Batch of 2 targets.
Target 1
Amino acid sequence: MDRWNKSIPEGMTDLLFGLGCRKADLENDCMESFRARGFSPLETPTLEYYDVFDGIPGGLDQTGMYKLFDADGHILVMRPDLTIPMARVTATRLAGAVFPLRFCYRGQVFRTRQNFGGMRHEWTQCGVEIIGGEPDRADLDCLEAAVSVLLESGASQPKLELGQADFFKGVAEELSLDPAETELIRGYIEKKSFGNVQDYLKNRAKPLKSSEMEALMDLPWLFGGPEVLKKARAYTRHPKAAAALDQLESLHSKLCLMGLGEYLSFDLGMVHQLGYYTGIIFRGYVKGAGEYVLSGGRYDRLLSQFGMDRGAVGFGVNVDSLTQAAGEMEKKDRRASRYLVWGGWEQMESVYTMVDYMRKHDCPAEVGLLRDEKEAVRYAVDRGIPYVLIWDEHGGWAQWDVRSGRPVPFNGEGMTARDGSLDDRSDQGAAPE
């Protein structure tokens, strides 16, 4: 009988050392960025009742949820989404609050994906939700936060692609497509399955005019700069589609005035989960990530599922995907130990006093755990720790520069947070003995 005690389930992963540190930094950076913009942290449980996620229009596929039972036989799920629980909390516990509400969150999300697709079934998400407020103002604020968090992550070539759910809906209504057809074609366009779109339209029982077919066939290709919006207007005059283009144009103009234009592009073929989204939709990309690392949009009907009639907009960052991308760009962990502090067993009080002093001066340091100073230096070499402090036989600290392989003077004054080294240019006083 096979035992699985040395394996992990499909879609799960272990995150080690440098990437683990980088992920923790990115989580903290995201939350700091959100809180600096007035978003308040909100936490929901990992386990929710299945009913919370059931029946959401355009919501989650129930087959993609991890399910279990509580002691009373109720169906529970491992949280497959963080936005829907935010809506539950708002509608059930915050109905009398002052709106708009601005939430930020971080947590684990669990959702099964296609096997052997190399995609995780568990990942960490940080995000924001704005409940209420004037829609265009809330959308602009949400987009600014999305671009900024990508820029602040340190990842290369951040880009935010903008779409609008009502553009495709307007085109579908103008062509008198029924809901089943609309959903079928939406799925093809979302997957960029151009051949399937063409085959369906050609074999449709009630053929479309060539101009009408052109609108749907070209939709997946409507991505790029502002010229895309002008091109899109030639395909439809439906009021809903025209209003969607007007909004995109207005938001883009304002974001450009804020100096963010170079990070924006359009994708009118972005038609994912149209039953869920009701307006602006967007995705964020960075160099080195195999998929989008950020996604969001406006969802004005979600809270009504829980008894509250308020619009909302938000986005989530896939911290794991962003970590992998940022890890490709930045191999060095900014919070990795810069000092190894070693002393004999009798000097451990002095060792911990020095390490505490370093940490308070924003200089990451760790205690040497090996038997003698030679082993401590070898450990520092292997781990890439640039400096070793050793309590010498004269009752003082000796500093060893691992990179040069030579001892260097140490006077214990001041620390440069940039590279973690000690210098004598500070007036902070001498290090403790």
Target 2
Amino acid sequence: MTRKCSLLVPNEFLAIKKGKAVPLIHPTAIIDPQAELDPTVEVGPHVIIEGPVCIGPRTRIMANAYISGNTRIGSDNIIHIGCVIGHTPQHLGYKGAPTGVRIGDGNEFREYVTVHRAAEEGHDTTIGNRCYFMGLSHVAHDVTVGNEVIVANGALLAGHVRVEDKVFISGNVGVHQFCAIGELAMIGGLSKIVKDVPPYMLVDGQSQVCGINVVGLRRAGFDPQTREKIRQAFKILYRSGLNVSDAVSRLESEFPDCEPVQKIVAFIRSSKRGIASHTPSFGE
């Protein structure tokens, strides 16, 4: 059950914690009457919630956060100090079209993270479940982020970027608009991503693949045999001397029953920007 909120009566919203009544909404918060908050939502000092925002159970919003527009936030999210979620996109062509933000469950947004609504009418900026966005990271308009993604401090996702499940994006990475980053890829700090990054790859510098994300694959529970097949796929794709088209054809024929390798194949076949190139890692 959700509740419609009032600007003037925050003391109506009380919860029982350890036998004691405590306010869930701080008296200094400003909440639009259009907003719908689950009774278990906590709202800190000087938070502003503007427009038809909908927030699910047990989500906690800390001081000075600003949430606006057609924004839907699921359950068990933590929104830290100064975050801006659902504000208008940084897009010169945006003229106020109805767009939104959709956020799943169990995500955490650290200090001053920004998530902008979509720029294209009828579209949403979307974030899945159990993601972790560190301080000052940015999710631009029309971005799609999967589940269990980690975005480190200062990383920037430009418009229309797609990030698949369990990707790790290190600090101060810049991802060019319309780029895609495949499942379980890891992007090294300060990298500049201007090409699509296939699943499971380790990337550094300017869209340069330097290996596979071995640690991420282990942590995700990939068995040694599957990891070895992914390693072989990497060698065929990046170290065999074949062009991308021929390498992909070889992957299809040599690993027809290996789902992760076929994910790499499907990702490359759907790429619109071309895939990241290879550079030898230290010690190769």
